[in-house]
Design brief:
The chain is an all-alpha fold and about 160 residues long. The protein has seven helices and no strands.
Length: about 160
C-alpha cells in the first residue's frame, strides 16, 4: 500500500475508527494508539486491504484491537499494583509479598534494558505511549511492541512458574 493510499484511508476513516475505539475503551490516548497501530500495520505491510470493504475492515481491526487491549488491561493492572505496591494485596494469601518480589526481580533481570525502561515509564510513571516514545527516542509503534512483548514474557513466566 502506498503512502498516498494510506493517507486517503486515514482522512476518510480516522474519525469513525477513533469514535469506535473511544466507545469501547473510554480513553482518548489508548483510542488514538489503537487507531495508529492499525494504520502502522497497514504501512508495514502487515495487513492487506481491499478498497471495496475498507471501512468495514478498518473498523473490525479497531474493534479487535480494542478487545485485546481490554483483555490485557486486567493483567496489566494486577502487575502494576503488585510491582508498584500502590494497592492492597490482591488476595489474602501469604504468597503476595513473594509474588511481588518475584515480579520485581523478573522485570529487573528478565526484561531487556529498553523494554524494562519502556515498561517502567508507561506503567509506573503513568506516561502515555507517545510520551514514552518521546522520552526514549523511539516510535510509538516500538513502544507498543516492547510493552506487548514484556507483558507476554511476564505472563508466560508466571504461568509457567505457577503450574
Amino acid at each position: 500500500m502506498t503512502t498516498s493510499e494510506l493517507e486517503i484511508l486515514f482522512k476518510t476513516h480516522y474519525a469513525a475508527m477513533f469514535r469506535l475505539a473511544m466507545s469501547l475503551l473510554y480513553d482518548e490516548d489508548e483510542s488514538k494508539d489503537v487507531v495508529s497501530d492499525v494504520f502502522a500495520s497497514l504501512l508495514d505491510g502487515g495487513m492487506a486491504i481491499r478498497s471495496d470493504n475498507a471501512r468495514g475492515f478498518l473498523l473490525t481491526c479497531v474493534r479487535n484491537s480494542c478487545i485485546n487491549v481490554i483483555r490485557h488491561k486486567h493483567m496489566r493492572e494486577r502487575f502494576i499494583r503488585l510491582y508498584s505496591n500502590k494497592a492492597e494485596p490482591l488476595s489474602d494469601g501469604p504468597d503476595d509479598s513473594l509474588m511481588l518480589n518475584e515480579l520485581r526481580d523478573y522485570i529487573n533481570k528478565g526484561l531487556p534494558p529498553l523494554s524494562r525502561r519502556i515498561f517502567t515509564l508507561r506503567y509506573l510513571h503513568d506516561m502515555t505511549c507517545q510520551q514514552v516514545a518521546d522520552v526514549v527516542g523511539v516510535s510509538r509503534v516500538t513502544v507498543h511492541h516492547h510493552l506487548s512483548q514484556s507483558l507476554e514474557k511476564i505472563n508466560a513466566y508466571f504461568n509457567n512458574t505457577k503450574q
